[in-house]
Amino acid sequence: MAKRGALITFEGMDGSGKTTQLRRLAARLRAEGRTVLETAEPGGTAIGRKIRQILLDSKNQELSATAELLLYFASRAQDVDESILPALDRGEIILADRFTDSTLAYQGCGRGLGAQTVVLLDRIACRGLRPDLTLLLDMSVETGLARARARNSIESSAETRMDEQSLAFHRKVYEAYGALAEREPQRIRRINAGAPIGEIEHEIWKQVQAYFEKCHV
Ligand code: TMP
Fold this sequence. Notes:
Strand order of the largest sheet: 2-3-1-4-5
Low-confidence stretches: none
Largest sheet: 5 strands, parallel
Strand content: 5-15%
Mean pLDDT: 95
Structural class: alpha/beta
Bound molecules: thymidine-5'-phosphate
Number of strands: 5
Order of helices and strands: EHEHHEHHEHHEH
Helix content: 55-70%
Radius of gyration: 17 Å
């Protein structure tokens, strides 16, 4: 029987180390002979990367909360249609740096647009596709923001519009992630992102192996 694919998402605050851990997991899976598609949101496709520029450019201060929400979903819809669904059909493992949980936390809660609106748009953009497993890298708001802002200043990044939001905004995002993890403990696994990098990698590997075994991936 052909092995089925899986969509594994990485979530967490800015600066929580998601991207580093995603790459490490991809390398481990490939070393096992699995075919892995790495994607990121916003971004993931050529069109998504153009949308990402609009979303994260700190010059775009006038972007309204609703336009922001729709742009995150526009990028995701493109990624789902162009990359994720075809890769799942081929039986691949998709590792996504953020997915709809980010929108629930940042726009639904942080911006106060509400979970119902986000869920409605998710149905349109993702057409029922849900992550099989979500790794939530749990790090305090202050530590994460300090890391994200330090990185932005070193790389003189133009992608700072979201990191520049207030501490109160990021606290709401953090709380929303906590609530999501409590609501769906089977899917969302909390990982202590304050641990040494190698330990985090090991913990993620354990969680992924357990999921693969349980679900015959
Ligand atoms: P990244 O730096 O992890 O790529 O994420 C870009 C920023 O966009 C980050 O601050 C989180 C934010 N974001 C949202 O606000 N809503 C979303 O749906 C996604 C995917 C990201």
